[in-house]
Amino acid sequence: MLRGILRSGRVAHAYLFTGADGAGKSAFAREFSKALNCAESHVLSDACDSCGSCLRASRGNHPDILEIGPDPHLRMEQVKAAIKHVGYKPLEGRFKVVLLLHAEAMTDQAANCLLKSLEEPPDFSVFVLTAPSAGSVPPTVASRCQPIPFNACTLEDVLAYTRERHAGHPMCEAAAFWSGGIPGRADLFFERDYLGARNKALVVVERISELDIMGFAEGLGKEETSPFLDCLVSLLRDLVVIAARGREGLFGNPDIRDRLEAASASWSLRAALVALEETLRTRTVISLNANRRLAVEVLLLKLRALAGDGYN
Ligand SMILES: [Zn+2]
């Protein structure tokens, strides 16, 4: 869509990129501003990434591109600086670009100030605002911007993304599944110790009947709990796929498929489904500040009962 806008040469004065955190709004906003000012392309299409203009934009010191935010409160002074920026002719590029990242954090005063500039934009000015949704900025601002929605990507696309960025890592599939189609969320998966967390979750699905539940719950650190539950969800989901004889492509942890096949002997389809539900519920109650250790203990006791008598 953005390439099409660039090629058409009909660049609007304001865009509103909307979508979840991690969907790539800021990254695309920066690429777009770079492409708008690339010195190499005679017809606008994409940034060459090698001309002086592109290199300066990549380093964040292009004189015609101003990036504001993210900030807990985008204040009027910052918007005034943006308006001043677009008030001058471009120094070396084609457009004076302002990136307003997380525009939902604008104060009312700042939004009113911006509105004046959006109503009568200078010829060569381009504003790119990012926000979770069009409804999270004042309607008067949203209505003056061309909306560019960043929807969830397909599983295949996120998988291609994780494989490119984390080549050879055994958790690329699990990360792609966990991301819900949001590439930046898949990155988080690698930043936290998900491999360690998955090993702990694997202990639960493989050996719940003999597990020292109290000791296990006590040994689970505060930071570890959320990745552990995420991984447990992912493993139980795979057990459901195995029990339901689902498609190969639905597998979230293909690198440990053998171990999950073996573990599936203790998990009927129904048991795995109920366990999955219970784990999701536990994740929610912990996020609502329930006693973390107690919630994990209760969950594991339920899982033991489910795996034990099959729950057929
Ligand atoms: Zn260039």
Q: Strands, helices and their partners?
A:
Layout lengths: L1 H7 L5 E5 L6 H13 L14 H8 L5 E4 L7 H12 L8 E5 L7 H12 L5 E7 L7 H4 L3 E4 L5 H11 L6 H7 L4 H9 L2 H14 L5 H7 L2 H22 L13 H7 L5 H19 L4 H17 L4
Parallel strand pairs: 1-4, 1-5, 2-3, 3-4
The structure holds zinc ion.
Zinc ion (ZN) binds next to helix 3.
Structure description:
Helices cover 54% and strands 8% of the residues. The chain is built from 15 helices and five strands. α4 links the parallel β2 and β3. It starts with a helix and ends with a helix.
- The counted number of beta strands is 5
Structural class of the secondary structure composition? alpha/beta
Largest sheet report: 5 strands, parallel
Number of domains: 2
Helix fraction, binned, reads: 40-55%
Radius of gyration: 25 Å
> Number of helical segments?
15
Give the CATH level 1 class of the largest domain: Alpha Beta
Mean pLDDT: 91
What is the CATH superfamily of the largest domain?
A: P-loop containing nucleotide triphosphate hydrolases
Entry summary:
With 312 residues, the protein is α/β, with parallel strands linked by helices.
Key phrases:
Zinc Finger, Delta Prime, domain 3, 8% strand, 54% helix, five-stranded parallel sheet, Rossmann fold, alpha/beta, binds zinc ion, 312 residues
